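Per your request, structure below.
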C-alpha cells in the first residue's frame, strides 16, 4: 500500500493538471515519447486481440495500432478524451470500440475483459499506483499482458537527489519525479498469477522503462479465491 504525503498525488490534482495539458499535449510530448510509444504498441501487437489503453490521453497511439486490434481507451481527463474522440472520428478508426472517462483505480469493466492492457506514463501519476495495477490485473485475461511505459527513479546518486528536490513542483504538473522499480517488484511478489516478463530502458534520457507483466493462464481462479477469502 502506498502512503500519501504532502508531495504525493491526489485525483483532483491529476485531473486538473491534465485538463491544462490537453490543448498542448501532442505538441509537447508527441515527439519526445514517440520511441517508447512505438515500443509499447509493438509489444501489444505481438499478442493482439482486445487491447485497453489506460490513460489514452488525446489518442496519439490509436492510429498506430494494426486494424486487426480491437481498441478501447480510458482517461481520467475529459478534455483529453474529447481530443481522442475527435481523432477517432477524423481518421475513421473503426477498430476503436469505445472511449470512456474512467479512473484507472476503479475500472468498470468485468474481470478478464482484455488480452492486452497498455498504460504509457500512467501508473506513476495515479494517487495509489498499486490499486491501479490491481485493477489492470483484474480486467486482464489469463495469458495476457500488461505493458507499461513508466518513469523509473534512480536508486541513488545525483539523479536520485534531483528527483527528490523536484517532486513538489512535479506534483503540480500531475507527475511523480520519484518512483522506484522496487514498488513494481513488491506488487508483483504479492499479486497472485502476475509475473515480470521484461524490463528494458526506452528513450528519452534513459529515465523510462518498458515493463511487461504476464498473467498466468490459471490466474482467474486465483483471483476469485482471493476475493472470496477477503
Amino acid at each position: 500500500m502506498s502512503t500519501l504525503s504532502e508531495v504525493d498525488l491526489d485525483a483532483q490534482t491529476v485531473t486538473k493538471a491534465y485538463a491544462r495539458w490537453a490543448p498542448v499535449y501532442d505538441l509537447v510530448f508527441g515527439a519526445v515519447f514517440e520511441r517508447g510509444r512505438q515500443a509499447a504498441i509493438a509489444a501489444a501487437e505481438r499478442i493482439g486481440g482486445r487491447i485497453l489503453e489506460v490513460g489514452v490521453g488525446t489518442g496519439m497511439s490509436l492510429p498506430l495500432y494494426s486494424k486487426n486490434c480491437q481498441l478501447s481507451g480510458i482517461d481520467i481527463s475529459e478534455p483529453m478524451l474529447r481530443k481522442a474522440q475527435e481523432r477517432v472520428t477524423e481518421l475513421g478508426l473503426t477498430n476503436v470500440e469505445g472511449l470512456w472517462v474512467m479512473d484507472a483505480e476503479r475500472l468498470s469493466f468485468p474481470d478478464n475483459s482484455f488480452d492486452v492492457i497498455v498504460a504509457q506514463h500512467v501508473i506513476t501519476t495515479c494517487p495509489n499506483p498499486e490499486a491501479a495495477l490491481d485493477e489492470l490485473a483484474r480486467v486482464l485475461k489469463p495469458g495476457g499482458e500488461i505493458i507499461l511505459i513508466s518513469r523509473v527513479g534512480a536508486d541513488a546518486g545525483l539523479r536520485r537527489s534531483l528527483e527528490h528536490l523536484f517532486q513538489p513542483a512535479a506534483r503540480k504538473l500531475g507527475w511523480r519525479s520519484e518512483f522506484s522499480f522496487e514498488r513494481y517488484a513488491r506488487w508483483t511478489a504479492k499479486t497472485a498469477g502476475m509475473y515480470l516478463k521484461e524490463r528494458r530502458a526506452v528513450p528519452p534520457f534513459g529515465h523510462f522503462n518498458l515493463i511487461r507483466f504476464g498473467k498466468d493462464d490459471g490466474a482467474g481462479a486465483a483471483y476469485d479465491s482471493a476475493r472470496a477469502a477477503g
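The longest strand covers residues 140-151.

Regards,
D.
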